[in-house]
Amino acid sequence: MRIYNTIQGDTWDIISQKVYGHSLGMQHLIHANLKYIEVGVFSAGIKINVPEDETARITINKPPWFE
Fold this sequence. Notes:
InterPro entries: GpX-like (IPR008861). The chain is of the alpha+beta class.
């Protein structure tokens, strides 16, 4: 399991986007970090467990203009 150190203003979906490339892994992050379940916006320096669960890595086909 990797560790992600938050920066001021991070949210679950932003962290998921950074570590998985999409926000759909948010549920995996929350379940791996239940002590922070009540946090909506993180302060800097919080260590978040990032599961290496391949089911969290969903490939999303984005249209060319989205990139």
